[in-house]
Design brief:
The chain contains one helix and 21 strands. By secondary structure, the chain is an all-beta fold. The radius of gyration is 23 Å and the shape is elongated. The two termini are 41 Å apart. The structure holds magnesium ion.
Length: 286
């Protein structure tokens, strides 16, 4: 019989967050359960075994430790990998199949050279499918002809679950309030750096989003969490969103409001002809 010395490490971290309405809400993270045992090896010496969530460290039996699925990456980092849902590939078919306006009709945004361009007063571009936690890739370009300044230059935005905005704006040598510049979680968190390319050039966002979780009474159990790369540069690292990102006057944004597990991807019509291409998404667990 092996000598068994078992210890069990179970931690419950309760972090207190200040909710957008000023109330305190708790969120919980349960770390993996780690169990250790000492067994006597074939040579008579003790061998330490660790089990993480019931699986032995360096387990080689695929029945006990299934290997991750194989995914073929795209040729370049921005290309959709084999398990991505392609939401826009530059074609009219792709646009019509996956997108409409935000009023339930066909979009009036226009196709230009394999990109889809925002049309003023045409409303937002809204994905027909809805998503929760996800990895989203998209590419955008603000107009090469520079007009306006501040929030008026190349403004659009991408909304997760139809409501949480990552700002799109031409901030190449164009100042605005930092929590509203390109890559900002609008009104809530400024990007770590300004990684903007010049107007007219294609830029990428890679967004890793975990949806917020709500309790039975609509309270925030876990806030939304964003990790974002702009042109491959990290601009948000596991940022917990402190509330909603909707406009609530010049110096306020909306609070969290409970909503469903899924919502559409929205691209904003802010009156400026911003173009988009190569949009794909991978669904993630919560
Ligand atoms: Mg915007």
């Amino acid at each position: 019989m092996p000598v068994v010395k078992s210890s069990r490490l179970l931690l419950l971290i309760v972090a207190t967050l200040v909710g957008s309405a000023g109330s305190a809400v708790a969120h919980e993270t349960t770390p993996p359960e780690i169990v250790t045992e000492t067994r006597v090896g074939d040579d008579g010496k003790d061998v330490l075994y660790m089990f993480i969530d019931g699986v032995k460290v360096h387990e080689t039996d695929p029945a006990k430790q299934p290997p991750p699925p194989v995914v073929a990456p795209g040729e370049s980092a921005g290309d959709p990998p084999s398990d991505a849902i392609v939401l826009f590939d530059g074609t009219a078919e792709s646009l019509g199949a996956n997108w409409g306006d935000d009023r339930g009709g066909a979009t009036k945004w226009r196709l230009v050279d394999g990109a889809v361009e925002s049309v003023a007063k045409a409303g937002y571009l809204q994905s027909k499918r809805e998503f929760g936690s996800c990895q989203l890739h998209l590419e955008w370009a603000s107009p090469s002809e520079v007009k306006g300044d501040g929030q008026g230059r190349g403004n659009s935005g991408v909304f997760l679950q139809g409501r949480y905005e990552v700002q799109i704006l031409d901030n190449f040598k164009n100042a605005t309030y930092p929590d509203g510049q390109a890559g900002a979680l609008y009104g809530r968190a400024k990007p770590l750096v300004n990684a903007c390319r010049p107007p007219g050039e294609w830029q990428s966002y890679d967004i890793i989003f975990k949806r917020p979780l709500f309790g039975a009474d609509g309270e925030v159990v876990r806030p939304a969490i964003f990790t974002v790369l702009h042109n491959g540069v990290l601009i948000h690292h596991h940022v917990e969103l402190s509330g909603g990102t909707g406009w609530a006057g010049p110096h306020a944004v909306t609070p969290y409001e409970p909503h469903g597990d899924r919502g559409p991807i929205l691209l904003q019509d802010h009156g400026n002809p911003v173009r988009f291409r190569n949009i794909w998404i991978r669904e993630l667990g919560d």
